[in-house]
Design goal:
alpha/beta, Rossmann fold, 9 helices, globular
């Protein structure tokens, strides 16, 4: 009788391989979204880059093609939530249905809760939650119609579990992302669609540029994080590849914190 361990050792399958797959990445021109695009491109995936800036999309597409991968740039403003479905319907009809969706687009508006405008609050929820929901369910409709299967990876946050002053819209949105990830995972499991989230710690991106430039905040992050540093987009990108690949085929409905040990201490 062949035991499972020897069978595992003789396997020649690379479970982390994403070659031949197509990945749609929102917020793909900078930060974590671009990091995910680079990692998935190096893994052999075709990349659909979705962003608002045409020039940035073209620049990122040129960079990714250096990895030898095929890319397609999709210029679209996710704030137009009512147009997301028809836009993606047309893209999928023309270019095929992606196998992987990375919901990386996100915005932040800071201010005291009693002062922040309702417009700012709604804009954060609009991009971080409503647009994510609409992109995800459009992706899922097409995957289900094609016979099922697929991987959805959402970007959550430390603020899915914790909060700081002056971040109420962002904290509310990322709490929603965590719970929405679980709800969609449970609902779509029967179709073979996996839904998980990566929750980054403090990452050195454009979104955090003002915080990084503040010496006292920079020092606080480094002293508070057990690993003693800000994370990088690459730190988040490789866990995204794991969730996008067959290596994670018994993982769904999870929020995985990639935070340098932040939540493990106090």
């Amino acid at each position: 009788m062949q035991n499972s361990s020897s069978s595992f050792q003789r396997s020649t399958v690379n479970a982390f391989d994403v070659s031949g797959k197509t990945a749609l990445i929102t917020g793909a021109t900078r930060g974590i979204g671009l990091g995910a695009a680079r990692a998935l491109a190096q893994g052999g995936a075709k990349i659909l880059l979705l962003g608002r800036d045409k020039e940035e999309l073209e620049r990122c597409g040129e960079e990714l093609r250096e990895f030898g991968c095929e890319t397609l740039s999709l210029c679209f403003d996710l704030m137009q939530t009512g147009r997301i479905r028809p836009f993606l319907d047309g893209i999928f009809a023309e270019h095929g249905i992606p196998d992987i969706l990375v919901n990386s687009a996100g915005i932040q508006r800071r201010g005291e809760a009693i002062d922040i405008s309702l417009r700012d609050f709604n804009e954060v929820l609009g991009i971080n939650v409503t647009a994510l929901f609409e992109v995800s369910r459009t992706f899922a409709r097409h995957r289900i119609a094609a016979g099922g299967g697929g991987k959805v990876i959402n970007l959550a946050s430390l603020m899915t579990s914790a909060a700081r002053p002056n971040t109420s819209p962002y904290t509310a949105s990322k709490g929603a992302v965590g719970q929405l990830t679980k709800a969609l995972a449970v609902e779509w499991a029967k179709y073979g669609i996996y839904v998980n989230a990566i929750a980054p710690g403090y990452i050195d991106t454009d979104l955090n540029a003002a915080l990084i430039a503040d010496p006292s905040f920079d020092q606080w992050v480094k002293s508070r994080c057990p690993l003693g540093r800000w994370g990088t987009p690459e730190d988040i990108a490789w866990p995204i590849v794991f969730l996008a690949s067959s290596a994670s085929d018994f993982v769904t409905g999870q929020v995985i914190y990639v935070d340098g040990g932040w939540l493990a201490t106090f």
